[in-house]
């Protein structure tokens, strides 16, 4: 389908917005009045610029506060409309959005709105303009789409249809059934926006928190399918007012926006078997975590050139992260044939430490997933305008495909070979000597989830990136109060629960994310037993107050409470399920969490995350550094 986007969705001047929108591959725009009024370009120049960029102006908007007014106000409103219709000629667009009156309406009767919009439709027809009447969710008398449709139906003029904006409709929880009653040609325009669930008045929610489809909580595929079934033939058009996007790089936002529509069309096609729509290769089904790759950071004694540092007395060649892996019971099972990369394993958990990566501190560089066919994964990634990285590989080595996530993490896909001796194997492990030599352990581990801290302005994009590419579903955001601000956390889970990712959005002020490490959560079926064997594992210390509170809440058996306290293990419960977990101290920008899930517990212990954030803050000890207003003033010399 044709794709369009309102200029209000991205930051910049009008010229910058148009460049970014065209570069992302959109077919058209909704031109926002403010963007035109503030531009030095004449309407003809804007039209020319759009034509040069291959963009059509699909809609001019908004025209406000027209109907339901006193006769004296009506005359002024018609004159105002006449000027806008003339302007539209100069822009070369024939469609305008008319929002329901939020301010000047004083006559609550539909007959008045019908009569006045009828007169406006006559005027529009003279100018060969079509109007799309939109019920704003906070409209004074008209605030629902079915009401707007009843009025438009009574006006019964070819120059007037409705605008269906998913935000106004879904934010009010309106039934979507009326859409089927609207003839397709009377849906003059459709606008798409997703949103997070919030308890906020509609106006504030709409003006600050709208998101692109797939980034919020609504089912936009159902909304679009219903409009298409009604016979809507216009573009899929985005109208997203969002405070973060308004201050982000418009080129990044535009690609994110366009990805949302490509993924949405695919979802509608897939669900409804609609052959007129573009279908992409299927969302990638993940078999499991193949590996997590760590960069050891500058403290790495082997350095990026592989030479051992002399300052460390430790005879082993391990870096700080490798010492942590050792403390966690991992074994170095191999090193890569031609790269300075070590493979560490414990049970079914594989961690690759890449000494060739240059990073100032240790951290997660890549996630590896098992998939059935790498080529299909590549095709979907490509169709979704992802940054596909074909990594250097030699004959006989596994072909690894990587895609760069918005936060820079590389996401690898590798195939399981069917294996001649039965049992699927990972081809890439053969490049590490013995290969997939699992080391026997009394408490085998598996990677349960990986939690990635996201830059404050890219978390919505990250949700869409993972959700559109992979077969994952997203939970709602959970707010975690941290010692340095509120962290918003959202998880993505594969259908069988084998893959979990937690995306943690930093507090807005924390534009430097170095205080917020990522983590790898390793699951065992006996956490307390495992910890008894891992003597000397440096865990985060849990305050005594936490255990007093735990006791007050759960009334635990005294023996158990003491055991948890002595081991620095935290506990959470949900329904019949129980979650035990402990956090290691961070190594650079990464730490490990050891967890045990009991009785179908499906969460992440979010209730305990504030304890961790406070403990980490005590370790780094830094107060947030703000800019003092005085520092922005010119300095006086006299
Ligand atoms: O917030 C507003 O005023 C506004 C304006 C135009 C729209 O299309 C809309 O959905 C909202
Ligand atoms: Mg709208």
From TrEMBL:
The protein's annotated pathway: Aromatic compound metabolism; 3,4-dihydroxybenzoate biosynthesis
InterPro entries xrefs: DSD, Glyas_Bleomycin-R_OHBP_Dase, Glyas_Fos-R_dOase_dom, IolE/XylAMocC-like, Xyl_isomerase-like_sf, Xyl_isomerase-like_TIM-brl
EC number: 4.2.1.118
Record-annotated Xylose isomerase-like TIM barrel domain positions: 18-249
Root EC class: lyase
Positions contributing to a divalent metal cation binding: 134, 165, 191, 239
Classification via Pfam families: AP_endonuc_2, Glyoxalase, Glyoxalase_5
MF-aspect GO terms: 3-dehydroshikimate dehydratase activity; dioxygenase activity; metal ion binding
KW Oxidoreductase (keyword) present: yes
Residues at which Mg(2+) binds: 449, 519, 593
Gene Ontology biological process terms from the UniProt entry: 3,4-dihydroxybenzoate biosynthetic process
Cofactors that this protein relies on: a divalent metal cation
Catalytic activity reported: 3-dehydroshikimate = 3,4-dihydroxybenzoate + H2O
HAMAP family (alphabetical): DSD (MF_02238)
Family as reported in the entry's similarity comment: Belongs to the bacterial two-domain DSD family.
Function: Catalyzes the conversion of 3-dehydroshikimate to protocatechuate (3,4-dihydroxybenzoate), a common intermediate of quinate and shikimate degradation pathways.
Protein name: 3-dehydroshikimate dehydratase
